[in-house]
Amino acid sequence: MRVAVAGGTGLIGALVVRKLTEAGHEPVVLARSRGVDLTTGTGLAGKLDGCEEVVDVTNVMSVRRKPAVGFFAAATRNLLDAAATAGARHVIALSIVGVDDVDLGYYFGKRKQEELVRTGPVPWTILRATQFHEFPEPLVDGARGPFVVVPQELSQPVSADEVAGALVAQVGQVGQEPGGYVRPLAGPEQLQMADMARRLVKARGSRKIVLPVRLPGAVGKAMTGGALLPREDYARGERTFAEYLRRVANRLS
Q: Which of 106, 167, 188, 217 is most solvent-facing, going by the fewest CB within 10 Å?
């Protein structure tokens, strides 16, 4: 079937596009680089024509509340309106384990996205996942000088490839009833984010020094206290962080 992928050029989006293609579907990528700005609706008209389902993996790189909420509110509304106009029968959105329990600005944006999907005009499925194995990468890449500042955070990281597979597995599953919230997805082990960053630095052969920093107030307490871990029945990913690091090292060798 024809499936729109909002955010189809990002980390998860590119994997979703590949897996849809391998499964015999026809992905339609919605991204700024493809002439579609979901926040304004520019280039969206007609893009979803013939699309039976939509996978939403849009993202914004901001931890501040106002821009995060603004992005997800605008992008989600425009996407849902376009999906309804095109007659799409299912929207599948990716969200985050613990999004209700951590009052970080970015998480307010994801809450808004979930609210709009739940109350929107198209039957929906929401998959919540824990942080990806790749989560420390932008922290390390964006570090200036020898130090990498990493938030103190207890995580249960999951393979991005497994997240993409779980999203694609929902395509075509809505027959009589929408999926609603499906079982969240988490990795096979609990790790401290600072340790993940240190191991990534080592795998890259870098000498950068990782500095863990506890975020202030309730946010820091929640992130260090396990609020980002699954608390209910969840689907357990199989791939470990060590496997991801081996792939990183192999790319560099």
A: 217
CA of residue 98 relative to chain centroid, distance: 13
Note whether 56 and 79 are within 8 A (CB).
Answer: yes
Dist CA 107 CA 138 (whole Å) = 18
68 touches 108 (CB < 8 A): yes
HEC letters along the chain: CEEEEECCCCHHHHHHHHHHHHCCCEEEEECHHHCCECCCCECCCCCCCCCCEEEECCCCCCCCHHHHHHHHHHHHHHHHHHHHHHCCCEEEEEEECCCCCCCCHHHHHHHHHHHHHHCCCCCEEEEEECCECCCHHHHHHCCCCCEEEEECCEECCECHHHHHHHHHHCCCCCCCCCCEECCCEECCCCEEHHHHHHHHHHHCCCCCEEEEECCCHHHHHHHHCCCCCCCCCCEECCCCHHHHHHHHHHHHC
- Asked if 140 and 201 count as a contact pair (C-beta separation under 8 A), the reply is yes
Q: What pLDDT was estimated at residue 58?
A: 97
What are the φ/ψ torsions at residue 219 (nearest 5 degrees)?
Answer: -65, -50
For residue 242, what are the CA distances in angstroms to 195, 199, 220? 12, 9, 26
